[in-house]
Amino acid sequence: MVAKRSVAWRSSGNSMTRTDNFIDQLDKIPWFASLAKPSLRDNEVFRIYHWDSWPGPEDPGSEMQAAFHEKWKTELVNAADSQAIEVFWAIRERVLQIAKTTIPYDVNQDVWYGPNAAVLAAAHAAALVGCAILRDGELKVDTDLQNARKQWTLANEWSWYLEGHWPCIYYWPWGHAKVEVAERTGCFRRLVVL
After folding, report:
1. In what order do the strands lie in the sheet with 167-170?
2. Per-block average pLDDT, block size 10, for the chain (194 residues)?
3. pTM score, two decimals?
């Protein structure tokens, strides 16, 4: 059965109005409220249920996820587009302030401490979504999210944040590689979700 999802964020009006609406809704997201809790969508992804199960930033899957995020940022935030840059940083800062109060975020730990990494990843993803809305008027969603070959998308990751989870890593057991290698292989692209 194919999971059909509607567009997560869409509103009428000009790009800034849509982006402003998105920003206004950020405090309504259940940031990390469902960590380690089962989801009806568990069969779509690989699940972990504890912070200690996250392998950290140097795992090839973490590096691959970070590389895809940088690719999306390059596509969505043009260095010459001051409005996109402003939107990116405003949303990132807003989510940092909201999300770090919901889990054991620790300013005395480095950015790779699990809860800190989760908050920073959520802020970055939200900022990318906001820039997609600024550019396209919506976050484009692939309606076939159960297809394991299509899970590495911003829309799919965002859908897990909206449900209170952390899409913390890409399943990528083939060692350290670049985005181009992953795209060429056609291999399964599953998320790992806490």
Report:
1. 46-47, 191-193, 167-170
2. 33 68 96 97 93 93 94 92 95 98 96 96 98 93 60 93 97 82 78 95
3. 0.88
